[in-house]
Amino acid sequence: MKVKTAKKKGWIWLGVLLILFSICFYFILSQKPHEFSPYDSESPSPTGLKVLYSYLEDEIGMVERWEQPSSLLPESQGRQVLVMAEPYFIPGTKEMNSYIDFMENGNTILLLKNNPKGFFDIGTTFVESMSPEQSITDSSQTNFEGDVYAPVRLDVNGEEDEILLSDKLGNIAITREYGDGSLIVSLTPHWLTNQDILKKDHLALVLNLIQQDGFNNETSILFDEYNHGDTGSSSFDVYQDWFLLLLFQGILVTIFLLWNQGKRFGPILQPREETVRFSDESLRALAAWYLKGNAYKDSLTTQAEYVKYLLQERWGIPYNREWKDCAVILHKRWKTKENGKIDLFIHQLTQVLAKEKITKQEYLEWAKQLDTLRKEVEEG
Q1: Would you say the pTM of this structure is higher than 0.85?
Q2: Are 172 and 148 in contact (CB under 8 A)?
Q3: Among 35, 94, 226, 373, which residue's Cβ finds the most Cβ atoms within 10 Å?
């Protein structure tokens, strides 16, 4: 009863320590400063997009973050604009086909990257560096002021591409149709950032790009966070703190459960067969050897010698004395057998031991009688 009570108290203290450790672990995680990657729509840093996201959320309302692969892009009702600001990696063929399917279903992708070569077969041409301050012209020949840091300009692919924005060095933004949707490519991802969105005419230019190609009140805007350029994150950063906390607790509980299943409370009691061999194991092996070789005479002789050894040890009959010379003492000590039967036993045993070979039946009979004498000597 005391052992069960002590065990229960031990588990209670273990649970309390686990809860305290979990609380401390959670506060440590919550106090860790969050590091945002560039072009993150949740980032309030100068390179983040939180200002633009909040503005569109207040003005339009239908704004969301997309944090899953392109193969899971929604095939929903209504038009959608997927904003890809400076993607970190170039999607593979399969991912690129998923983006194309998304556009062919009537949606728009707005790709803003300093050098979009490798995306959707976009061609670029390097230009001579000059002041980033440019006079930018849209398709209606309206002039805007903005900064362009891109080292390239966009190539136009025949009649498929339409120029949206340009400067003295070339094309800054173009659009291309894909089925019922379209692709808009711009060389100015920095226009979206918190530090540049309100400079010059950047906000007007960004809204002009987003609202291209049939934009209406039912259009929803998705900010692609799956490949927005987070280069310093680890594999754990994709999980929220509460999930990491539960995962850590689950690991601890699993370890303690495994430890409990293999732990012995109290004295260690090993099974007897693990430390002690059977006392008659050698006898069993020897008996099996005698039986296999039909060595009944040898086995019976060995048994008789052993009984004589016990007679010397327990009853004081010398070991080297013949069986017929033991009759006097056997008459006095062997209480369960009559004297006449004792004499007959000694006479017949001497004849059997004098034979060169004996049968199995003789062996079993005399082995049984010798064993009876042995028990008498050991118990008497």
Answers
A1: no
A2: yes
A3: 373
* pLDDT bucket at 259, cuts 50 / 70 / 90: confident
Give the residues across from 211 on adjacent strands. Answer: none
128: confidence class by pLDDT, cuts 50, 70, 90: confident
Task: Quote the strand ranges of the chain, DSSP E.
Answer: 63-66, 80-85, 108-112, 124-126, 133-138, 143-147, 152-154, 161-167, 170-178, 181-186, 220-224
* pLDDT of residue 268 exceeding 50: yes
- Give the 3-state DSSP-derived string for 170-206, with helices as H, strands as E and coil as C: EEEEEEEEECCEEEEEECCHHHHCCCCCCCCCHHHHH
Q: Which two tokens stand for residue 85?
A: 């600001």
Question: Which among 162, 163, 128 is positioned nearest to 148, based on CA atoms?
Answer: 128
What CA–CA distance (Å, rounded) separates 312 from 287? 24
The model's pLDDT over 100-124, given as tens digits with 9 standing for 90+, comes to 888 888 889 999 998 888 888 888 9
Give the pLDDT mean for 216-231: 74
**175: Cβ–Cβ under 8 A, 6 or more apart, which residues?**
161, 162, 164, 182, 183, 184, 185, 212, 213
CB crowding 329-352: b at 16 or more within 10 Å, else e: ebeebbeebeeeebeebbeebeeb
The residue count for the chain: 380
Beta bridge partners, 41, equal none
For 340, phi then psi, to 5°, come to -65, -40
Q: Between 1.10.150, 3.40.50, 1.10.1760, 1.10.260, what CATH number should domain 50-231 receive?
A: 3.40.50
Q: What percent of the chain stands above pLDDT 70?
A: 80
* pLDDT for res 231: 43
CB 299 within 8 A of CB 364: no
The pLDDT value recorded for residue 232 is 45
208: which 2 tokens? Answer: 């002009």
Q: Give CA–CA dist 122/102, Å, rounded.
A: 18
